[in-house]
Design brief:
Length: about 110
Amino acid sequence: MSIGELSSHTGVSPRSLRYYEEQSLLPARRTPAGHRRYDRESVDRVALVQRLFAAGLTSTEIRPVLPGLVDEEHRTGDLVTTLREHRSRLQQEIARQLDTVDILDEVIEYQERT
């Protein structure tokens, strides 16, 4: 399928799809005229990349784990370790944010009493 068709099937802009290709997240074949062509599995791959971006991973973090997520043959212990490390960083950030909310609540409460 063409980049326009893949864009229609996934709701992801052609510009983003070209970025995914540049970042080695989405392989594309080229026609003799240089046009990109994608297989049907690309729809699922784009959806997975989108989920990983939504989970807060960067393209640099996605690149090494993506092969193991799309092909069991490439699955290693590093895959789970990397994802757990990311989850741990997110949990730490959430804890910091919750502390900030508590501090703001204290300030608001103090201001409301005075």
